[in-house]
Amino acid sequence: MRVDLFDFDLPPENIALRPARPRDSARLLCVGAEGPFTDHIVRDLPGLLRAGDVLVFNDTRVIPAQLEGQRGEARIGATLHKRVDLRRWQAFVRNAKRLREGDEIAFGAGVTGHAEARHADGSWTLFFPGEEPVEVLLERAGRMPLPPYIAGKRPTDEQDRADYQTMFAAKDGAVAAPTAALHFTPELMAALADAGVRTETLTLHVGAGTFLPVKAEDTDDHAMHAEWGTIDAATCDRLNAARAAGHRVIAVGTTSLRLLESAAGEDRIIRPFEGDTAIFITPGYTFRAVDGLMTNFHLPKSTLMMLVSALMGRDRMMAAYAHAIASGYRFYSYGDSSLLLP
């Protein structure tokens, strides 16, 4: 399928550089299989769902995975995107042409990384020596890895450490936030519970590959970066029971959706999963695990634009995005949200 089928023009002023405050005051576009689109705010969500629906959240926690350092006179930037083991991370490297295997990079605050191996996609494995956990080193020397479309317009600051983290964040490992869940607050969660909406969590450590542009002209030629995730047996049992009882499973965010679909078989049963997934969902895919999706608005020609088009139909999503742009919705990680119910 041609990648340019998922292109659209987005005015720069529609790109959000800060989140809505309070978080649940962001706008919410409701998109059904047919009929008019309806405009709401996230706080309206309890009235848009049914008692018995299950929202599935990703409890990954974003680590400050953006590092700036020196190798001799050369400035080297590194964005960690996938853990290899306790002391090694795979990283996208800026100014990588100045790096050789065995080089040491000084990232400041007493943190160094060794360039161990270059990969075919241009990324590097970096080894962090020492006794302290790598996460401790990152808290000292790293910055929150804001998406390029935000970081290119303003510097990362201390406020982003709170803003770019969901209320569900519990397990270190993501280098990008599961942004659909940024809109939730304790007050909204209480209102959802009062409405009979249930919640579950899983873990998918989002990688920086989520921001990489699709450079291929055809979707068949695009290689997804793998991300690690897990969902346990008890959670699977509850989700399967909910669907068997006629209730809907609605993923909060494309990361939750991708792990649920990775864990489900052709029989539509969700099974325990732990490991890497590189699932790539494009139109024509048959969904096995989810009945809806809450998600922010995505980049043109991105794998996530393809995913939502697979769920709702390309023409329906292009029309929804045209409505959102014309109505002044805010796009991308800090932007507004949509509720997609096929």
CATH topology of the largest domain: QueA-like
Output the radius of gyration. Answer: 20 Å
Q: Fraction of residues in helices?
A: 10-25%
- CATH architecture type of the largest domain: 3-Layer(aba) Sandwich
Provide the number of structural domains: 2
Q: Describe the global form.
A: globular
Instruction: Label the structural class.
Output: alpha/beta
CATH fourth-tier homologous superfamily of the largest domain: QueA-like
Biggest sheet features: 9 strands, mixed
Strand content: 25-35%
Spans of 5+ residues with little confidence (pLDDT < 50)? none
In round numbers, the mean pLDDT is 95
CATH class of the largest domain: Alpha Beta
N- and C-termini, Cα separation:
22 Å
**SS summary, helix count:** 9
What sequence of helices (H) and strands (E) makes up the elements?
A: EEHEEEEEEEEHHHEHEEHEHEEHHE
Work out the number of β strands: 17
Which strand order does the major sheet show? 2-1-17-16-14-3-12-13-15
Pfam families: Queuosine_synth
Keywords: Cytoplasm, Glycosyltransferase, Isomerase, Queuosine biosynthesis, S-adenosyl-L-methionine, Transferase
GO cellular component, one term: cytoplasm
Subcellular location: Cytoplasm
